[in-house]
């Protein structure tokens, strides 16, 4: 690959020198500018693979330069150098299109990683996600789905924190995996964490790691999930479920790009892109004091809203066909299809649990269906708008007790899932069981 060229814009000669030396050691050539006017002149002279700019420049704000480069030279990623602790300017820069930021005093290890990420963007050979084999596709040709796919490709080139909203089962995790898989971090791990599923007193140790002996049961040093996601992406699912003390630590980790393990005195730099998601409205959580406003502001630099399935019913046929094909493959039975009445019924259903619910409905229908065509009866959709109700019917004496109890359990679980819009963490809470136990039961009852 040809030598990469960087443009560094800062009016402090010491910082310019430090960055220039670091870049030279990484085999990059660097040109420097002390103000915006000079930077614009250099940009018109030659193409750059990367630009690093200070926030406060003698003739204006670095944000202005970010916007200028984004508009004129969209192929050049720009990172902002911000004053220590000034997270709001970092957020403003990323909202203006900066792909990342580095705080002063510049940590050289983090700077090197940032430069490496930026350079991977110019490798037009970023492997498309379908080739990596791990990423799943977001299917659908409706307008909202096409827009989501376009946004994902754009967001993937950036390093800013992303917050994905949307009801349960709308594909938030699939979207997060795609953002990771289409970007320069694709070769590093994608680490998903269900924040609601970690017991409250273990959250900090899980996320940030712990030192041996820091609490009963800490029998050895253990790195946290942040470190597991080094150079990759940490996906904080159900982020609204994080207890407040862990929120304080998370805020610090994002701000400082470093973490401190439980029981340790030392901060260790970490380079993980944060993508978070919640099916809850975080504005309400903030208003009610359950989620820190400053943390929300920081994780929500880019917001991606996954549309509910009922907002795009035209995608139901293609999704259903795809899911049935997968079921046929997994079960080794011949191809299956929906009757036209079945398809019609599905497209008019509200799907509170979205695509995950569609998957469950079709899996259950496929198991019950004896022919290759699934009809309305096998879909077992709730009548009218009412959801499944727990049977009030007397015990049937002609079925084994165990089957009868399974049936009751199944109905209670389905009802809790429907009431929580198929959010398994919330459904488990409602049923007074752990998520692990709900998962076990879903699997036992063939509902997973
Ligand atoms: N557009 C889509 N195309 C294909 N499959 C999809 C699509 N959207 C969602 N799915 C499938 O639906 C299921 C649920 O998706 P996912 O787990 O990403 O949802 P989620 O929004 O993260 O749910 P939750 O909020 O409950 O965690 C997965 O099996 C996923 O593959």
TrEMBL record:
Domain Sigma-54 factor interaction: 138-367
UniProt domain Response regulatory: residue ranges: 5-119
Bilayer-spanning residue ranges: none
ATP-binding recorded as keyword: yes
PROSITE patterns: RESPONSE_REGULATORY, SIGMA54_INTERACT_3, SIGMA54_INTERACT_4
SUPFAM superfamilies associated with the record: CheY-like, Homeodomain-like, P-loop containing nucleoside triphosphate hydrolases
Protein name per its UniProtKB record: Sigma-54 dependent transcriptional regulator
Organism for this UniProt entry: Thioalkalicoccus limnaeus
């Amino acid at each position: 690959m040809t030598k990469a060229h960087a443009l560094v814009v800062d009016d402090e000669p010491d910082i310019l020198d430090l960055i220039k030396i670091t870049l030279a050691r990484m085999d990059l050539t660097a040109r420097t500018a002390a103000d915006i006017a000079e930077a614009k002149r250099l940009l018109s002279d030659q193409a750059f693979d990367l630009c690093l700019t200070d926030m406060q420049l003698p003739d204006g704000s670095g944000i202005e330069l970010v916007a200028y480069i984004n508009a004129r030279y969209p192929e050049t990623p720009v990172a902002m150098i911000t004053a220590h602790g000034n997270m709001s300017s970092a957020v403003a820069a990323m909202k203006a299109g900066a792909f990342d930021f580095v705080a002063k005093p510049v940590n050289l290890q983090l700077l090197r990683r940032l430069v490496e990420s930026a350079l991977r963007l110019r490798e037009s050979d970023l492997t498309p996600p379908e080739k990596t084999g791990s990423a799943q596709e977001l299917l659908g040709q409706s307008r909202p789905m096409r827009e989501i796919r376009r946004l994902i490709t754009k967001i993937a080139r950036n390093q800013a924190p992303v917050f994905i909203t949307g009801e349960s089962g709308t594909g938030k995790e699939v979207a997060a995996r795609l953002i990771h898989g289409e970007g320069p971090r694709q070769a590093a791990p994608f680490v998903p964490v269900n924040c609601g599923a970690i017991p409250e007193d273990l959250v900090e140790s899980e996320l940030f790691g712990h030192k041996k002996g820091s609490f009963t049961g800490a029998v050895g040093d253990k790195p946290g999930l942040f470190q597991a996601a080094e150079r990759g992406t940490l996906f904080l699912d159900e982020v609204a479920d994080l207890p407040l003390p862990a929120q304080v630590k998370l805020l610090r980790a994002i701000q400082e790009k470093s973490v401190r393990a439980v029981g340790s005195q030392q901060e260790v730099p970490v380079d993980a892109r944060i993508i978070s998601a919640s099916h809850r409205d975080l504005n309400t959580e903030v208003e009610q004091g359950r989620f820190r406003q400053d943390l929300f502001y920081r994780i929500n630099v880019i917001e991606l809203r996954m549309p509910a399935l009922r907002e795009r019913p035209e995608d139901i046929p293609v999704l259903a066909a795809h899911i049935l094909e997968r079921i046929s493959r997994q079960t080794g039975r011949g191809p299956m299809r929906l009757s036209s009445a079945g398809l019609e019924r599905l497209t008019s259903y509200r799907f509170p649990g979205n695509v995950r619910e569609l998957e469950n409905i079709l899996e259950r229908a496929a198991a019950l269906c004896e022919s290759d065509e699934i009809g309305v009866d096998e879909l077992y959709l709730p009548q009218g708008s009412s959801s499944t109700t727990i049977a009030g019917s007397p015990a049937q004496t002609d079925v084994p007790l165990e089957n009868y109890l399974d049936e009751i359990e199944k109905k209670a679980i389905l009802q809790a899932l429907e009431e929580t819009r198929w959010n398994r963490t919330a459904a488990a809470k409602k049923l007074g069981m752990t998520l692990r136990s709900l998962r076990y039961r879903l699997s036992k009852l063939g509902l997973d």
